[in-house]
Amino acid sequence: MARGDLTDQEWAMIGPLLPPERGRWARPSGDNRQFLNGMLHVLRTGCPWRDMHERYGKWN
Questions:
Q1: Cα dist from 33 to 11, 37, 56, whole Å
Q2: From CA 19, how far away is CA 29, in angstroms rounded?
Q3: 27 burial class (0-12, 13-18, 19+ CB within 10 angstroms)?
Q4: For 20-58, what is each residue's pLDDT tens digit?
Q5: What are residue 49's phi and psi, to 5 degrees?
Q6: What pLDDT was estimated at residue 2?
Q7: At a CB cut-off of 8 Å and minimum separation 6, what does 22 contact?
């Protein structure tokens, strides 16, 4: 977990509100927590999606 990412306590409150992590057809499912942390990182730093840190997954 990096600085600024959601803590376990915060995720316990937010996680159940999100849709389930299941993929569509052949697309593999994603990790909601990793995706949300990536979104918060982009909003916090103002960086473009393509410059997002690798720990949050692929930018696209």
A1: 7, 6, 9
A2: 11
A3: exposed
A4: 766 566 555 568 888 889 899 999 999 998 888 888 888
A5: -55, -40
A6: 76
A7: 29
CA distance 17 to 28: 21
Please answer whether residues 10 and 18 qualify as being in contact, where contact means their C-beta atoms are separated by less than 8 angstroms: no
Q: pTM (2 decimals)?
A: 0.74
3-state helix/strand/coil string of 13-48: HHHHHCCCCCCCCCCCCCCHHHHHHHHHHHHHHCCC
pLDDT for res 8: 93
